[in-house]
What does this fold into?
Amino acid sequence: MLYRKIESLIEAHLKSNSKRILLIDGARQVGKTYIINAVGRRLFENFIELNMVADSLGDRLFADTRTVEDFYLQVSMLAGNQMKQRENTLIFIDEIQMYPHLLTLLKFLAQDGRFTYIASGSLLGVTLSQTTSIPMGSIRKVRMFPLDFEEFLYANGISGAAVSAMGQKFKGLEALDEPLHHKMMDLFRKYLLVGGLPDAVNSFVAEKNIQAVREIQGEIHDYYAADASKYDEERKLNIRRVYDLIPSNMENKKKRMVAQHIENKKGKTFSDYSDEFEYLISAGIALNVQAISNPVFPLLQSAGKNLLKLYLNDVGILTGILYGNNIRAVLNDEKSVNLGSVYETVVASELIAHGHRLFYYDNRSKGEVDYLIDDYDSLSAVPIEIKSGKDYTVHSALNAFVQNEDYHIKKAFVLSNEREVFTKGKITYLPIYYIMFFTVDSGETQI
It folds into this structure.
């Protein structure tokens, strides 16, 4: 079983006797159902799993269930012998987005308190926005992501003690020794190939077969691109167009989405595709990075909506699209291959999985900085520049950014392949794998 950090959060919540129901949100195929099953069956004598996709395709028992008593009646038809007491009975409502009215019903199930509940789903951002009665105060919503780099290390035999020791090195701004650095870079490059989708990671660990990994990634990529069932045909087609544009945009200098390129129609603006962007972001299959021209803390208040970058949610899917089965492009650090877009994608997925909102700096005259994150200690923005080549100390836009006194920048980071850790002025240079330690306290949302 793959170690997932969210497991401890799920376990702690279920043991807490909280009156709120834990709702795990996230893209399909990131392991939500698996980890809830693993924790739920371990903690509860009676574990009742209700899959609403299966129900919607079958008996539709819950399609019109609007009251607590009707819900219990339907559950009793499926698992009446397991409906005992709150402390030993967990009811798991999987794929809850299939029936939006059940999100409202969660409030009343929580108030009733007869059993313990947990739910999961995809597209919950879209579904909740269209729910007439949002269950305020009754749900604890937490987003789940593919395996991050730290979890990938555990899957490949790196111990928790080793990761903890590296974390201490990071906190002290110290470099790893040469052998460990090379080991970490080897695993980082393998992570670029494999990504964090559980099926792909399990296949890699068991077989070390890149073709098998690519087949899994290809199937999931196609599934993501095709899965937009709630929209009409025109919206579905445009969602597919936007999604298919993401890898090619990564090869452009600006890497931004251009509204007129989606249908190759002049005059189109971002507002024409708001539903398409909302779907891809809410589904968790695309990560959005918003432009900031005035980097004042908190960054969200200065975010622009029209200069948007989108990244794929899994770096393995991206390298599969770009390089197929040719692993040399990534593993051998080929000089002819620019891995900038790949590095930016993995950093985006790490930062968002660790609870950061994603922004980038955009200035016509002074250039761009790859990422900005909020620093809640200094109440200022922290710029991060990603370098995949040897010229990692060349970054004119970042230099101008940190020197601008109006921005009140206290510190900045450059992440690259180099082992050495050192600071020049406000800029600290770190090895790329240290991105796994850029965390905030919590990435959850309470509603």
